[in-house]
Amino acid sequence: MRVDFYQLGGLDPARAMAQLAGKAVEVGLRVLVVDGDEEARQAQSRALWELSPEGFFANGIAGGPYDARQPVLLSGKVEPVNDAKVLILADGQWRDPPPAFERVMLLFDEENIAGARAAWRMLGEQDAADRRFWKQDDRGRWVEGP
């Protein structure tokens, strides 16, 4: 399983999540976004709807009648009822994913850096984890690096 660590700079966390989820949806993958904060999930839903003037990414907040049909499902739990292959941990908190996921993205800021480092070390002890680290350059693009 590939695990990407995204260190958020000045970018709004909801917007960063929307950009990453949008790229996954564009290539035909379903996404589960997990955040323990209900208000954050509302902001993430708005960010997905408002991502660009040309379009939006349909999404839903878990607990509705159409959860299984959502290309992007926002939830407080790691339950891929929408058959997601991509898991975005948007609140900076590591949660062990079920094997159904092909890729996990952990978004974290300065407040959650200690937890991200602990998850990085823990995953380094597992042969099945392909870890990558991403940060933003001065133009706001994600670049891989230390």
Provide a concise account of the structure shown:
This protein is α/β, with parallel strands linked by helices and 146 residues long. It has three helices and eight strands, in the order βαβαββββαββ.
Description:
- The protein has helices at 13-26, 38-49, 113-124; strands at residues 2-7, 31-34, 60-61, 72-75, 86-89, 103-108, 130-136, 142-144.
- The chain has 146 residues and is α/β, with parallel strands linked by helices.
- It has a single domain, classed as Rossmann fold.
- Strand 7 (130-136) and strand 8 (142-144) form a beta hairpin.
- It is globular, with a radius of gyration of 14 Å.
- Label the structural class: alpha/beta
CATH superfamily: DNA polymerase III subunit chi
Structure annotation, total helices? 3
Q: For the largest sheet, list the strands in their spatial order.
A: 3-4-2-5-6-1-7-8
Q: Compute the average pLDDT.
A: 92
Rg (CA only): 14 Å
CATH-derived architecture: 3-Layer(aba) Sandwich
Q: Roughly what fraction of the amino acids lie in strands?
A: 15-25%
Instruction: Give the helix level as a range of percent.
Output: 25-40%
What is the terminal-to-terminal distance? 20 Å
Keywords, separated by commas or semicolons:
Rossmann fold, single chain, globular, alpha/beta, 25% strand, 146 residues
